[in-house]
User: What shape does this take?
Amino acid sequence: MSAAGAVLVLEDGRTFRGEAYGAVGETVGEAVFSTGMTGYQETLTDPSYHRQVVVMTAPHVGNTGVNDEDEESARIWVAGYVVRDPARVPSNWRSRRTLDAELAAQGVVGISGVDTRALTRHLRERGAMRVGVFSGEAAQRPAADLLEAVRSAPAMTGADLAGEVTTAEVYTVPAQGERRFTVAAVDLGIKSMTPQRMAERGIEVRVLPATATLEQVLTAGADGGAPDGVFFSNGPGDPSAATHEIEVLQGVLARRIPFFGICYGNQLLGRALGFGTYKLKYGHRGINQPVMDRATGKVEVTAHNHGFAVDAPLDGPSDTPFGRAVVSHVGLNDDVVEGLRCLDVPAFSVQYHPEAAAGPHDAGYLFDRFTDLMAGADPATTTGGTAAGDGPGAGSGAGTGAATSTDDTPKGA
Amino acid sequence: MPRRTDISSVLVIGSGPIVIGQAAEFDYSGTQACRVLRAEGLRVILVNSNPATIMTDPEMADATYVEPITPEVVEAIIAKEKPDALLATLGGQTALNTAIALHEQGVLERHGVELIGADVAAIQLGEDREKFKGVVARCGAESARSHVCHTMDEVLAAAGDLGYPVVVRPSFTMGGLGSGFAYDEADLRRIAGQGLHHSPTTEVLLEESILGWKEYELELMRDRADNVVVVCSIENFDPMGVHTGDSITVAPAMTLTDREYQRLRDIGIAVIREVGVDTGGCNIQFAVNPADGRVIVIEMNPRVSRSSALASKATGFPIAKIAAKLAVGYTLDEIPNDITRVTPASFEPTLDYVVVKVPRFAFEKFPAADPTLTTTMKSVGEAMALGRNFTEALQKALRSVERRGASFTWVGEPGDLAELLEVVRRPTDTRLQLVVQAIRAGATPEQLFESTRIDPWFLDQLFLLDEIAREVRDAEQITPGLLRRAKRHGFSDVQIGELRAMPEDVVRGVRHALGVRPVYKTVDTCAAEFAATTPYHYSSYDEEDETRPREKPAIVILGSGPNRIGQGVEFDYSCVHASFALADAGFETVMVNCNPETVSTDYDTSDRLYFEPLTLEDVLEVVHAEQRCGPVAGVVVQLGGQTPLGLAARLKAAGVPVIGTSPEAIHLAEERGAFGRVLAEAGLPAPKHGTAVSFAEARDIAAGIGYPVLVRPSYVLGGRGMQIVYDEGSLAEYMATATEVSADRPVLVDRFLDDAIEIDVDALFDGHEMYLGGVMEHIEEAGIHSGDSACVLPPPTLGRGELARVRTSTEAIARGVGVRGLLNVQFALAADILYVLEANPRASRTVPFVSKATGVPLAKAAARIMAGATIAELRAEGMLPASGDGGALPPEAPTSVKEAVLPFARFRTADGQVVDSLLGPEMRSTGEVMGIDVDFPTAFGKSQTAAYGGLPTAGTAFISVADRDKRAMVLPVKRLADLGFRLLATEGTAETLRRNGISSTVVRKHSAGSVDGEPTIVGRILAGEVDLVVNTPSGNQARADGYEIRAATTAVGKPIVTTVQQLAAAVQAPRLAAAPPRRLRGVVV
Ligand SMILES: Nc1ncnc2c1ncn2[C@@H]1O[C@H](COP(=O)(O)OP(=O)(O)O)[C@@H](O)[C@H]1O
Ligand SMILES: Nc1ncnc2c1ncn2[C@@H]1O[C@H](COP(=O)(O)OP(=O)(O)O)[C@@H](O)[C@H]1O
Ligand SMILES: [Mg+2]
Ligand SMILES: [Mg+2]
Assistant: This one.
């Protein structure tokens, strides 16, 4: 199997050679590594990876092929894909196609046979940076040209990318069973599992484009009224560039409409409250990250995918234009702010992914906190679900009842 | 939550002797636990009957008891030491069952001892298969359909409902003992019968068969704050039906989507909570239907298990260590991750490499045993390998198990496709190799999946290997690219040499010339997300090397590889001691080993750990890598048994500094001719012998020295292929079937010494002075392998003069051979002549026993001598006693007895019979126990109790001995009668007894058959009427009767004595109750 040659060039000049994987051609983006050992299909289709070239630390990728249920959006978003040992033959009862074919079909340029551990260590030491992957013809060009191509690509910092990944029209994900609430979910790069998790809890989700005005958000409720809650999704890009979305969010907070944000949504809540945001050296991308819920003192193992983080004082409530706010969750690996909660307005958010696709279901209870919030309970006192014996459950009964019941539900969006 | 302040002392129960299903991994976990608990300032009290363990080193605990692990003994220890808590979840099934017994007898309550780790309720929920199914149901998951049965009638009814094949498993047994597949009623009666017997609760479970499903395991940990993490997922290469202990296993799981994996994780977490394992580790097994993903929970072990040791080594997450911390109250987030130091243990390790474990079997030692792999674990050890992909890890693991033919080969004809497809249906220890042959023979993935149910992804990896092999074989010439490609998929220089018809070293030369060398990666628990501080390395043919430079001179210690009969944990013990001693002496210690069960492969035992196969190629590359990092003062080959010893000469030839006894000296001791000359020079007698490569030669030699003769292949350990041959006929047979006979591997023919007392000696020699470590007198006579024979130290019946001869002879051999370090000599004393049977210029199996018995760390001293110290210096330092040695112990010194533990009960012949339990010159024991007390009878009694529960002190004894034993039998049998035993005997034996005034009841021989209702002896044994069986094999005739008797005894699990010497010792042993546990004396360190 003498595949076409490929080369990976980092902004700082470090180069790795390998074979072409997926589409043949060239691509440039921000190099990030993801440490999950399962869930490559979910990762590839997560809009938060828009414009990023993802390095998989797990050596074998593609073993379970590609199926029709596990994607998190309608397409693959990663700008490029770097793996060590791609599967030749997928093996899984749900598999429909090989990953190689899927990448090629969607024009995603990748490279295989790379010492992904060396590359990861490099990114860990030097920080996330731009990278180019060139295969086939492109790989033959002089090194200097390739490096130039990489260096001339736009950097991630300052980029407002939500607009590039958000839905064109409004769509609705109906509640499962009887509808308890209606939520306006602003799509900044939403993953299909997120409305799914809400729908399972009797929430009807109106998914709005990132460009939605405050007006549109406030009339997204059942029959044109105000929604019971507002949700800001995950998504790519630099939160400091999202001025429009932040204004909308401030309007929501001012009206005391229950708010829940995930990932990018957490960063936007942070900025709306007047906190800063900053770019992590090399981000958190994986499904094994320990986070402590400071309300319960319990540790949850969570799925992460973020390059930016909120800069808020870890202890003590801070005063904000919307009253007091606290850091509700902390990442135990490096004390990064992983969640915010307002004490005087009904709003909270987490930096990680309770919808967990891919990833552990430990944080599913957060969706219950959101429903409780909409039901008027105080988020501080509700942790949603008790530990032992309520179904195959990581953190929470509801969260994981859902987790197991969704095993074969088709994607929402 | 910080550590509990209400606990200040903890009793830790070890797992006792190494047996199949419960091996060295529990020394590893127990040792970690003791270290942690002591570091926490707790008083640690330890009980374990296995001397060949690091955990029983006195410095590991505040009070160490090498005593039988029985409720009675443990209660006595509790009464004496008054611990606050009992930690039983790190000592395998033995510790767990003992803890439950202590609880049920109210002992724990009476003495106010709290069971920490898992409480009894949790243990029972986890271990009781019926209760466990309830748990699974409450967690919204599925179990296999089943019925719990307590009687044979219930069993048959259940089978009617479930249909055949049906799985039978007893509750509360480990390693699947007594379980199996029943394909029809006959099978069922047999297996269930034994199952009912083996289960402490006489309970078996009949279960719907889900043969062929995918099998997975998860290792979980939970803390008292209810935080749960999954440490590792493991996928079995062999589908359901092959015990995980016998399966090739892979970490992480290779063929699960995230949704499927998370589902297993959710179930696992729900189960550990529902069972209520309040703190610590547990292991849960799943079966997944490849057709539709349906998940069935197979079982859970609410304790640290074999798989947790594997998971710890595979991920760098020290499960046992953390379990111990959790047990005393910490929570996961309070415990730092050793490897990153900056992040907490409350995370889930992620791997950027692949781990493969391959089991090591010992069927060659039980020719009668059926090698089909079933639900009963049969492997005696395992090797693990890491690689950056599956193929690399698999091929490294295969060469790590050190079994001829384990590595894939492309030479010779693959064989007939149709036949191969048929044989691979049956899982055996060689199925994997046959699958590759089938691929060579043109099998398609579909055909192979149909025959084996091995996952198509795994099968494709084997096809990939076959493609690469062809590329290498057919290439015009080896290009760097091709070589690198082969190496990236784990091909060894030997394999490439085979494919290119070149010697291994030529391939290596070419490879080095082309600059194709491995790099060393680091196991860091986090796929490089954080910097690792622990140098735990594995090789891979990848780009970046991670080894760090160092200043201090390093000493590389070669371990002993997978446990196997004849080379077990004893050798790991010596390697670990060497590492400790050399570190103390200021060296940087580098361990190379591939056995995941051991303490030596714990990343904090040595300064650096290379988890690598112990082949010439792999060792040379490690040495090369270390030489780049800094000075290498030497490589130790003397402590890991035959494995590293066999590399010595070739390592030296390759310019590696081998320290200690030189390869030339090793040759002097190992090569028969050379050794003969050493003995001749020293004027020491050896049994008449010769070496033969053909039957003709063998016949002439035998004729020359007279029958019986002892025959065996040269260069073996553990008496491999060794036989006592009584006549020319059987000699011809042996030569015909003898394994591995060739000019450079001739067959050795020895005069067999009858009625000889065997003596084992371990000694240190520095070139000038000898330190006699200990002299052991065997209980069984020469002819029973030293590893299987019980032995006593100090020797109870040897006179001063004999001891003096042993001393001078040993010293003469040490000098003559040129030993620097340890030497083991085996003598046989016959007709007042002290014959030398063999000398092993290395640490022996008995080093740990001798060290414990005499309180002198022989392996540590040996390591220091190899590194240049003299015995005089070590005496001055206090590592060795200032004066005297183990050959001259003071009269008040206690007596220690080592007893072997044998696995006969595990093996079945193809038609389901137990294999014969006769002892012989070929070693068959898997482990050993030690009994230590004031005198021989008491110590022996303890050793018997520790080994198998002990001899009965009353009841019915059946005696049937060979003519040659009739005389020696009289006194001991008299003593049995005096003890009040009712005696049954076969005619001849009864006759002798009668003449000597001992009355016994004559019973019908098996061959005589049972006439009008009167049962034969076999019938009585099976009916449980006999409490003790004494049966010594008679001469050389086919011993059908003897076999039937021993088989029946093994089947009902009653004690059997097969040598008269053993009987003589046994009748001296008083009730154990008379012998209170005694603390082991501190070792001088
Ligand atoms: N219902 C079943 N059908 C087929 N194989 C089974 C079944 N249950 C268990 N096995 C096989 O038997 C092995 C041992 O069973 P297990 O329950 O794990 O007992 P143990 O306590 O000895 O580990 C498993 O690893 C699995 O391969
Ligand atoms: N000449 C002999 N006569 C009687 N028994 C012998 C003789 N040689 C060896 N044996 C028995 O065989 C066993 C194994 O032989 P040994 O030379 O020690 O091989 P190994 O290298 O396997 O230990 C010894 O422990 C001893 O009991
Ligand atoms: Mg099991
Ligand atoms: Mg021997």
Notes: Residues 456-474 of chain B form the longest helix (19 residues). Chain B touches chain A through 70 residues (CB under 8 Å). The pocket of magnesium ion (ligand 4) is lined by residues B 786, 826, 838 (CB under 6 Å). The first strand of chain B starts at residue 9 and ends at 13.
